[in-house]
Amino acid sequence: MGWSISKMSEVTNIISGGTPKSGISDYWFGDVKWITPKDMGKITGIYVSETGRNITQLGLDKSSAKLIPENSVILSTRAPIGYLAINTVPMATNQGCRGLVPKNTLDTKFLYYFLLKSVSLLNDLGSGTTFKELSKTALERVEIPHPEITEQKHIVAILEQAFADIEQARAKTEQNLKNARELFESYLQQVFSERGEGWRASKLKEITSKIGSGST
Fold first, then answer.
1. In this structure, is residue 199 part of a structural domain?
2. For the segment 34-73, what is each residue's pLDDT rounded down to a tens digit?
3. Strand 143-146 to strand 97-102: parallel, antiparallel, or no bridges (unpaired)?
4. Reported pTM
5. Which residue stretches of 63-148 are H helix?
6. Which part of the chain is the Type I restriction modification DNA specificity domain (predicted)?
7. Are residues 24 and 112 located together in one domain of the fold?
8. Whether the Cβ atoms of residue 146 and residue 106 lie closer than 8 Å to each other
9. CA 73 to chain CA centroid, nearest Å
10. How many domains does the chain have?
11. pLDDT in tens, 137-170
12. Tag placement on the chain: N or C end, fewer CB within 10 Å?
């Protein structure tokens, strides 16, 4: 079968965030994970399970924040637009993020990779003067092409194998550079410590015309 093109609102439930009042201690330091764009900027992989701050159930109930179920995609929608992560535990967000909960026609990782590819588009859809923000309405209208769920999973597997191969190649390249650097330094040390026949030692001032100092 061919690919379908759906609006984001047709294949995901989009959940907006909120912030409990900071002056009420009963709203903070609870068991509910609460993520912000600042937290997301520190994520190095695909998944997130910890957040910089937690809120209480009361804080969740008394704010516009909503709990996003695990295995959803969390997207920062301002300051900046485009940080992404898949949450491995339920969590809420502040106003700078939105959660996209895939419906049964969409694979979570397929959605993640589509959004990753679409960060430039998402930024173009943002609006605002002080800083850009991607509104819920604009996000709902984003069109996502998608095949059947089994084909989505197959595509994800291919992408992840490609990323694994790239990471392996990068690691090998770094190791080769490290080995080459160590070999060069070893040879350099050998050249100047094991002097050849006819070498003589001189003070630097004896073989340079001028030694100067820098200034600021």
1. no
2. 999 999 999 999 999 999 999 999 999 999 999 999 999 9
3. unpaired
4. 0.79
5. 108-117, 119-125, 136-141
6. 2-170
7. yes
8. yes
9. 12
10. 2
11. 999 999 999 999 999 999 999 999 988 888 888 8
12. C
